[in-house]
UniProtKB/TrEMBL annotation:
It holds the Pfam family Flavodoxin_1. InterPro entries: Flavodoxin/NO_synth, Flavodoxin_CS, Flavoprotein-like_sf. One of its GO terms (molecular function) is electron transfer activity. SUPFAM superfamilies: Flavoproteins. Residues 3-152 form the Flavodoxin-like domain. It comes from the Bacteria. PROSITE patterns: FLAVODOXIN (PS00201), FLAVODOXIN_LIKE (PS50902). The lineage of its organism: Bacteria, Candidatus Woeseibacteriota. This is Flavodoxin/nitric oxide synthase.
């Protein structure tokens, strides 16, 4: 089964999570958005998409990529979505309000993948960064490997 992780990353944290997930899936590869054409996704068995949460959504590049997947492309594809994000628990009042209002990127990615025909096989997941530019919070890379190992 062909398995691909497609991600975007501004500061490198989501890239690390994407690679940890790809390493935990037999013969999977991680590709940055832009390295693959949405038309090439036909025939992919397992597609995992991840993005930093920015303003409650995926990055613009990743959103554009998702929107450009032709409808029905993923009808035979298992899909999963993840993001990186701030922890609501450790946020100040304003950030908590932003998070509660706009939510995170992964649920929106999952919805779009389903709208293209993909079969969601695990709930959307978020991995916590300790600041805007990282690093990932303690234990998150290990948690990503574990999450990835449940997918295949
Ligand atoms: C412009 C911008 C907007 C952001 N908005 C949110 C947000 O709405 N919610 C959140 O949890 N984190 C937010 N963050 C923090 C990012 O999720 C964090 O920078 C990201 O996880 C880092 O991943 P990267 O190293 O792959 O870019 C934002 C960061 C930036 C730069």
């Amino acid at each position: 089964m062909l398995s691909i992780v497609i991600y975007d990353s501004q500061f490198g944290n989501t890239e690390k999570i994407a690679q940890a997930i790809a390493n935990s899936i037999p013969s999977a590869k991680a590709l940055r958005v832009g390295e693959t054409d949405p038309e090439d996704l036909k025939g992919v068995g397992l597609l995992i998409i991840g993005s930093p949460t920015q303003g409650g959504r995926a990055t613009v590049a990743l959103q554009e990529f998702l929107e450009s997947i032709p409808t029905g492309t993923l009808t035979k594809t298992k899909v999963a979505a993840f993001d990186t994000r701030f922890s609501e628990k450790n946020s100040n009042f304003l950030l908590k309000l932003i998070i509660r209002t706009f939510d995170y990127a992964a649920p929106k990615i999952a919805k779009t993948l389903e709208s293209k025909g993909g079969k969601l096989i695990i709930p959307p997941e978020g991995f916590i960064v300790s600041g805007k530019e990282g690093p990932m919070a303690e234990g998150e890379l290990e948690r990503a490997k574990l999450w990835g190992s449940k997918l295949s």
